Amino acid sequence: MTADRRTGAAEALGPAAWRTQLLSRVGGDPPARFAGVFGAAGEDGSVRLVAVVFPEGAQSPLVLETTLPAGELSYPALSPELPAAFWYERVLHDLFGVTPRGHPRLDALLLPLTDPAHAPLPGTARRPAPQHPDESAIPRAVTGPGVFTIPHGPVRSGVLESVEYLVETPGEDILRVQIRVFHKHRGVSKRFEQLPLRDAVLVAERVEGIASVAHALAFCHAAETCAGIDVPWPARLTRSLYAELERIANHLDVMVKLTDAAGLAVATARFGLHKERVLRLVGQSCGSRFGRGVVVPGGVGGLPALAPRPLDRELARLHRSIDSDWRAAMATPSFLDRLRGTGPLPPGIAKAHGALGPIGRASGCATDARYERPYDAYASLGLGPPPDHTDGDAMARTRVRGSEIAQSFHLLGQIVEELRDLRDADAPPRLPMPGNLTGESTGWAEAPQGEALYLLRFDQGRVTRCVPRSASFHNLVLFHEVFAGDILTDFPFIEASFGLSVAGVAV
Fold first, then answer.
1. Rounded to whole angstroms, what are the CA distances from 69 to 19, 47, 75, 154?
2. Rounded mean pLDDT, 241-251
């Protein structure tokens, strides 16, 4: 779903008033959920700051804007009073050369920027030369007798994304973890610029490949609201079908990594098989194992190629097999011992940060766009109660995913039943989009990792600025917070239980 934010509709605030209003909204009673602060550069050297918050119970976000004039690209940092802004402000520094004064640690996050003159300035035509990080630099925050730093990554054994963790330890206990994601930075945000809608949605699908459907949905929701288009019902059903299949595949992938870390070879193979069956089912239905090409501006590329009856039969077989193996794994003492109490995220920190997806729901944060701001077919489907967990450890995060897999199969059953009743004369799968689309809007969708949020600006049918904010970016900073008494051998369980994508962080 989306909140329309046409050009000029947002209130213009001075930097001081903008900061004060944002902090008062997030710290109010009830508090609004902080969703991020983003930038857009002007050709005159100015930078517009855009903060997005979701007031409790609101169906649309509140967007607060201010502009930093050229030559004055600084403001009092939000992070000391709003820790959730910590990474967002580092990105503003990396991409725009903006200095949040008083920021606790303004190290490079997305880009090792050494000279503001080389900032890429998303929203402008600038194309700076590539930046090269100093790979020998290993910053340390913990000092003392016997404390050393283990650089873990960016290249690691196994089929894992490139990311560098700096583990500070006296030998076994993990005292602190720093995360450096700039090795993965791809400049995707700049890649959107000047693309027509039909091409830009292809980039959105590749922001976070394992959540291709969710990112395409968030992008298209923003474009459709800006255009005033109401997507036909068959397209809404089809979108929700692929979104739930994507959720199942992602949660199974987490279980593959968890059981592999525990040395449960049979369980690892079984969950890998189930994930492969889900991806093949998606491929049979649309031609792409990752659901690419399904979601297009105005609707979908086509209805599922697999007829409802065989689709329903395969879903039933999958559900039985997955449920049986999931229950077996969750009854294995040696597996549960590695999850219970591992990497706990305290509910207070999760709530203050606005933790998203299974990470948040395992720590008492029930944020889920399908419930709060339903889109596509979700408003008409029986979602059932959301998972309710507060332990916040790897066990709770795994249980949330188990509950969500069961919920996804329940939703898929409803969707397939609706598809079976569709007639050839029903509404077309998509509507045409205007070729001169101009304006600004915000869109979202609930990815397997949590809320994907897109801020888009269009001019005559082309994207002039796109901010793709994944739940992986919003949540990965919480990785710093969960090492309470954990040791090195707990690391793979904590990382796997987070279930995040580094590609979705380093855009």
1. 16, 7, 11, 37
2. 98
What mean pLDDT, rounded, does the chain reach? 91
Alpha-helical (H) ranges within 70-123 are: 86-96
Number of DSSP helices (H) and strands (E) in the chain, helices first:
15, 15
In angstroms, the CA 26 to CA 67 distance is: 20
Q: CA-to-CA distance for 165 and 291, rounded, in angstroms? A: 31
How are strands ordered across the β-sheet holding 450-459?
Answer: 2-4, 439-447, 450-459, 462-469
pTM (two decimals): 0.94
Angle in degrees, CA 86, 473, 22, rounded to 5? 45
Average of per-residue pLDDT across 251-276: 98
**Interacting residues of 410 by C-beta distance below 8 A, sequence separation 6+:** 382, 384
SS3 at position 303: coil
Q: In what order do the strands lie in the sheet with 176-180?
A: 148-152, 164-169, 176-180
Place of tokens 């397939």: 416
Q: What integer pLDDT is reported at residue 1 of this predicted model? A: 45
Question: What amino acid is encoded at 385 in this protein?
Answer: P
Which residue from 143, 142, 144 is spatially nearest to 177, judged by alpha carbons? 142
Cβ–Cβ under 8 Å, residues 172 and 162: no
The predicted pLDDT at position 133 comes to 67
Average pLDDT (222-244) is 96
Distance CA 109, CA 178 (A): 11
CB distance 167 to 150 below 8 Å: yes
User: From start to end of 203-359, where are the E strands?
Assistant: 295-296, 299-300
| Structure token digits, residue 321 | 């097999």
Which residues, 6 or more positions from 157, have their beta carbon under 8 angstroms from its beta carbon? none
* Crossing angle for the helix pair 308-329 and 265-286, to the nearest 10 degrees: 160
Q: Say if CB 106 and CB 85 are below 8 A apart.
A: no
Res 10 pLDDT > 70: no
* pLDDT at site 13: 86
Burial label, 16 (beta-carbon count in 10 A; 0-12, 13-18, 19+):
exposed
Contacts of 199 (CB under 8 A, 6+ apart): none
Indicate if the pLDDT at residue 136 is higher than 70: no
CA distances from 191 to 207, 360, 465, 467, 471 (A): 10, 30, 10, 11, 20
Coil, strand, or helix at residue 161? coil
Residues 6+ apart with CB under 8 A from 66: 12, 13, 14, 15, 17, 18, 48, 49, 75
Q: Phi, psi at residue 421, to the nearest 5°?
A: -85, -5
